[in-house]
Write the structure tokens for this entry.
Amino acid sequence: MIQPPAIEIQQVSHKYKSASENTLTDISLDIFESDVFGLLGPNGAGKTTLISILCGIIPHSFGGVNFYDRGKEVSDTERRSLIGFVPQEYAFYHELTARQNLDYFGAMYNLKKTDLVERREELLEVLGLTKAADKAVGTFSGGMKRRVNLAIGIIHKPGILFLDEPTVGVDVQSKNAIIRYLQQLNQAGTTIVYTSHHMSEAEEFCNRIALIDHGKVIAHGGLTELKTENKVGDLQSLFIKLTGEAYRD
Amino acid sequence: MFKVYASVKKELLLLINDKVGLALMFLMPLLLVFIITIIQDSVYKVVNENKIPLLVMNSDKGELGKKLTDVLTSSGLFEIDGVAGADAGILKEELLARGKMIALHIPPTFSAGLESNAGDVSRILMKDLGLEYDSTSVETVNIPAITFYSDPVLQENYTYSVMGVIQSYLSVIENSLMIDNMYAEMDLGDKSGILKERMIDNRVKINKVVATNNKSMAVPNSTQHNVPAWTIFAMFFMVVSLGSNIVKERVNGSFLRLKTMPSSFMLVMFGKMSVYLAVAVLQVILTFSMGIWILPLLGLPRLTLPGNLPAFVSVIFMSSMAAVSYALMIGSIARTQEQANGFGAVSIIIFGAIGGILVPTFVMPSYMQLVSNFSPLHWCLEGFYILFLKGGSWTELWGVFVFLGIFILICQLCTYFKLRIEKIL
């Protein structure tokens, strides 16, 4: 059965005003519903820029991006309710408690108070934050902060979830908890677009990937097919083969 | 509505967690009003209510030195403390040792000099009138100079005021002496008394009227000046709390995260503005309450609120909006919290200084008075002064509203464009 697309990216290019060259050039990708789509590439490849464009944070200079909800194209306003965004930074209020953060961002996602309270407690429980829920988030460990960051992005049960390096700088336990929960979300129908530098994690988590380097897609498709085509045994080897071993500073 | 509630609640929670910001916004103005009012009130009392302590060393060999001392004593303005001896150097030491601030040395030739001068004047007059006068040669004594010592900490204008008072009593003595001499030359004996009385009693009187509109019952005093002035200063100090709050949200990505959500960013700004407007109003209520109820308990003048309540509320609103808008602008321009706090605080102190919060603008040089027009704090203060001290009306407030309106607009536009540049809006 052919999966319907969740996101169509058509020849998207982007150039920052201060840059001499395009950060992204002619990116065309289809991301399907229920995909766990890995946007992979070395530092400075353009992954975060592409996620920022997809989330509507920055406008693209050329090309088009379309979002679909069960096959029906959605407007810009509908897109904001459809997507969830978990940035690389701890983008929340460190002075507030986990509950207070979730209450605020949940309200900004248009959740009704009763639904919000129910969802908030569910997430705190699932992500192991209930005991610390009334402490200021600034006092949390790195792993706990990552889980709060994730909880905020998924509090409204988004159809499409963008994750920009969601497990960077956390211990194995927190990483496993985060990935496990993301897999559950995906099985429940959430499309996930994910960036990471952890190749083993990406290999375990993603079903499709796009390798981006110097702002261009150098390979994309099913993970298994790409490994077979390039005659490599794992994702890390594929990554090195296609992007080289030179430093990217 | 739930979103508005959530936004306001979030800002309130952030504010409650900002202990330093709260202290700066609420404790600082109370302390400043309390301390500065007490200090300035004592200065007011020295000038207006208390007798001026004055050390006098009378070395005069005649009667007029004593007469001057008696006149100064009977004026009720001075509390005279005599110093024995003839060495004026001792007087300086005594002045500093006794903490009297002012001292007067009457020289040994004081009477002789004045009498000699009065004799000369009466002889000139008699000669000009073609009347007979005693033309026998008399020894001329130069007009004496009394020496006025003052503590170096005393303000120059205060010193000149006291010297002016002493000079006016000296004139009375000199004039009286001249009249006595002229009457004696004309052999009119003691008939000069009526003339002297008339000359002293029928001098042009100066009626002191404080320039307020007739509706105002407020008398300018340290409370009426300081309570509004330091309240405005504290209002603008919200830049430290609100400014750094915005920088944090910009830098940590919260603003960008909000941009991906189905909510208008204006809601975020509305939450901030409404909470900090409430903070400014609360600052006014607290400090003004202190002026009304606490300061009188300490023997300080009571704050009298202006009669025009709608105008008063409007001035509070415009001042609060100016403070909030300035904080938003600094928060959107600064790259780090340190920049927002440092530049914000220093800029408010500079605005306060040039705006007449620390020193009234009327004592500044003319070019600084011109510069003060560029301080928003000056216009806020002007608004309060028009109402508090002049009993002003709406028509007198239009300049205040126009300037503050322009200032608010500029700050809001700067904030808008900076956030647009950063793709947050």
Summary: Residues 41 and 212 of chain A are 5 Å apart (CA to CA). The two ends of chain A are 43 Å apart (CA to CA).
